[in-house]
């Protein structure tokens, strides 16, 4: 080991840097760095009004573009610097939680489903805005999504839902002459498609849109439900059993069994790669085929059509996913935020947004269902029918935080997923009942 | 007090200025003398690190403990509940499934990483060409951001486009052609869609990421083993395995314990691999405590229960660390 050079107290070590020099240099650097934060005047830019909006990254890219343009235009008119941040929808909740708890972050949060119930403690009272922008004309189910104990915690902006996207040419080839109207017809069609090598594609994975978008309507269409009007768990019924039995048969007979691992984009890719012939989805698959044909097989757009969810013994249902803009209580620009929401709901502005989406979303007021846009492209006209069959999670109980927790935990989705994995239907239903009671009957 | 050199004092300054300068210099000299004491200087130099630990570890940990004992929902005030969050979790089958997943995942991945890491370290300890380049390259899985590599793995495991299944299918079809047989359509494993395969997949990805850390750490240990011991072993006729077990292992055991325990703790709290690949699916068969805590706390807004799940790991991991410290102290005293 090399000898250490002898050092006298207060003398210089062989390397040249004394402790005193080190301390005085580092303290000087720290003081210089910290001086900027102590006293002095904030840069002029920090004094400009700003508005930070957090929203999802749409499956229709053009919609994000038009939102950015509209935000910029509003900013110019109102003298506000608007920052629109688009993120993956699966990440909205985590960002919202951080913003509400940290009391810092976006001025406006775009929240899906009834998530305003989860964040009510950190969102402003929007009753006045609701009254100005539509009042009782808003669809009841999307008002319920934002109304917590009589106070609106957001303003509904649009809602979306899925329909079955299918290949018209493949259906014809395998001899499906009539579009499936009931689950039995859908099963029969699926058997033919699977035999042909292009089955139905459906996810039962942990993903926010397509999985619950299938699981809840199937349950409801057989008469099953999570809770009754009083919030008592009533999942363990013969109707639920019928739904689980059906899905188990449907999965193996008609579906691509890899769907357990799919997220909300997997079925899009599978459809456009021509490995499946039918899938529950928004109109985004069709939009890719129609507006970026270079990314798909030739002529794909003309081969795509849509039909509604099949009807079961208890009726036909769709999950309608409401989306709302919600001002946070921590916002320092609440007036600007309210003005921005008003701007977004102006007739011309909203029309521009609705038309850009080309049927991917529905307006929050029934009048938007009469817009000529719905007739412009017959392939997407069917999406206009969704409000008739829309139902929300937590039915028949309240559309509240518990319903949101059940949705976020994928309890209904997993009930079906466990069944198709081989567990007995009764065991799956018992498991779901136990987990639902854990949420709804918690002391 | 140090005597100032005459050059520090000029005759052009006023007596008051000189007095205040002497006072200031005297004050600085006192501070300097105080800092000359190593016992004081040690604490002064440790203070920034201590502040960081308090702010970024101690405070969040304490807040987490508090949250786990309350009914805290996002945006709402917290009320003390005692251990009710924990008892509530104990009634959930999803929770117990997650505990089992976490234990199985951690043990499996750690054992694989240790064994394969040691194997790689032994290979790298040999004199090979481009040794430095190879040693640097094998670190890549460890240093590439987990989410980035996770996304690549998602594609490789994709239910429709998996390159693994494509390769296996090609082998299958080639075999059929060679044997002039028809074995039917080969789909390949559902890497992320079947619970068993999904667990295998996340263990595989975690192992792939962790092997370089083990290998480099073990390699550092192997290089401290005197070669004379191996020569002695050769003289005594020891086989390769005997040399490894009786010479190498005892000497690198302290390093191995530190590395294994460290990796165990980090693997137990793994989040990124599962979040990117499966998000806990299919039907909670790959949920770990960290991902379940995130789902409950961040996605459902139930911060109290989320914190309770996160803290559930703490006593167990604390015991592991304690065992490690006691073991190393015992080894050190021997």
Can you give a write-up of this model?
- The complex is a heterodimer of chains A (443) and B (334).
- Chain A has 443 residues and is α/β, with parallel strands linked by helices.
- In chain A, 43% of the residues lie in helices and 13% in strands.
- A 6-stranded mixed beta sheet of chain A has the order 2-1-3-12-6-13, with helices on both faces. In chain A, strands 8-9-7-10 form a 4-stranded mixed beta sheet.
- The longest helix of chain A has 18 residues, at 61-78.
- Chain B has 334 residues and is mainly α.
- Chain B is built from 14 helices and no strands.
- The longest helix of chain B is centred in the first third of the chain and has 32 residues, at 93-124.
- Chain B is extended.
- The interface between A and B is large, with 53 and 44 residues.
How are the secondary structure elements laid out?
The complex is a heterodimer of chains A (about 450) and B (about 325).
Chain A: H1 19-35, E1 50-56, H2 61-78, E2 81-87, H3 92-102, E3 108-112, H4 115-118, H5 127-133, H6 140-146, E4 147-148, E5 151-152, E6 155-160, E7 163-167, H7 168-173, H8 183-196, E8 200-201, H9 210-221, H10 238-254, H11 266-272, E9 278-281, H12 284-291, E10 304-307, E11 318-319, E12 321-327, H13 334-344, H14 347-357, E13 361-362, H15 373-376, H16 386-389, E14 390-391, H17 401-408, H18 411-420, H19 425-440
Parallel strand pairs in A: 1-2, 1-3, 8-9, 11-14
Antiparallel strand pairs in A: 3-12, 4-5, 6-12, 6-13, 7-9, 7-10
Helix pairs in contact in A: 2-13, 2-14, 8-10, 9-10, 10-18, 17-19, 18-19
Chain B: H1 15-35, H2 38-68, H3 84-90, H4 93-124, H5 131-137, H6 140-143, H7 146-156, H8 163-179, H9 195-222, H10 227-235, H11 240-268, H12 272-277, H13 289-299, H14 303-333
Helix pairs in contact in B: 2-14, 4-9, 4-11, 9-11, 11-14, 13-14
